[in-house]
Design brief:
By secondary structure, the chain is an all-alpha fold. It is 81% helix and 0% strand. The longest helix is centred in the last third of the chain and has 57 residues. The radius of gyration is 19 Å and the shape is globular. The C terminus is likely disordered.
Length: 389
Amino acid sequence: MRIRRPAIVYFALYAGGGAFLPYATLYYQSRNLDVARIGILLAVGALLGLIASPLWGALSDRVAGSPRVLVVGAAVTVAGLAGLALSDSFPGILAANIVLSIGISGLVPIIDARALEHAGDERAGFGPLRAWGSLGWVVASLGTGLATQAFGLWVLFWVAGSLYVVTAVLGLGLHPIAHARAEQPLRSAARYFRRGGLTLFVFGGFLAGAALFVTIDFQPLRIAELGGDRTMVGLGSAIPAAIEVPTMLAFPWLARRVGGHRLLVVGAVVLGLRSLLSAIGSTPEFLVAGAGIGGIGYALFTIGAITFVSQRLPRALAATGQGIFQGVANGLSSVVAAAAGGAIAAAIGLAGLFGVAVAVALVSVITIALAVRGAARPADLGPAVDGLP
């Protein structure tokens, strides 16, 4: 089977994330930062990501999807990692984390937009392409966990930085299939979101993301609290990503038989189940097993949501639309999860924090189920917006 370039770029991109993100909170803790300051770091970085994600997407659409925008985003990401590695004070770590978050926020929506163009009718092939990203996460998170156990946490910066450089090099060849250029992408995309009934869906995505990021961000600390080592933290990140791979590969088959909308809701339900298992777990092994189950939910929800949004926007707004959705569902939810999560964990403990995440996840399931029933496609919206097809 021929491997398409977006698949290889996904592998490098998510391998970079898998090398750094599972161990970020442990690195901050090694710098003598308490859970409240770690929450602030994650929240501020995510807030900048929230703002930057749609801006990166809009910039990409304004220049008709030129891969140079992706390369700039990767360069900013590497600069942020270098700053983190060299900083030994809270202000320095905070500044570097902001740079890192701004850079990373530009990579995902642009690569998603290009991959969706290669996904065929109804974006059916998107899941198998995105599965390569989860495979990269598995390889890097496991490998980095073993490396940090042997040599120290500093190794993760070399591994992650190298992988983001590879992402930039490979991304130079990720040209759009159709060179559609949008003059005012942010304004046009916002109108499609309003007129297409996507606002409620974005809110549901925000709630699902908040519950998920609370669990992901603070589970490494909970594993360490229960006596688990860094290898166990790596397994907690790698196993769900490994389970995501076959789930994403099977998504087109499942969607044809069950329906993409139903898979979205099922994914949100399973994400809530992961939060529940994290709340009641009392051993590192139980938390890792619960994370594995959550991998199914993440795959179903992520592929379903990205596809759902892309089907309701014209091609010229592909990166902007993904930037807006992911800015809210990933960026804003990360801000709330990190800031509120740190404060709640300090007050009632990590297990109590995961219990709050369960309640948020339940509301997200109801919201998403209602939203997918009423959203319209571009063809159903009447006249074109700002001259776009």
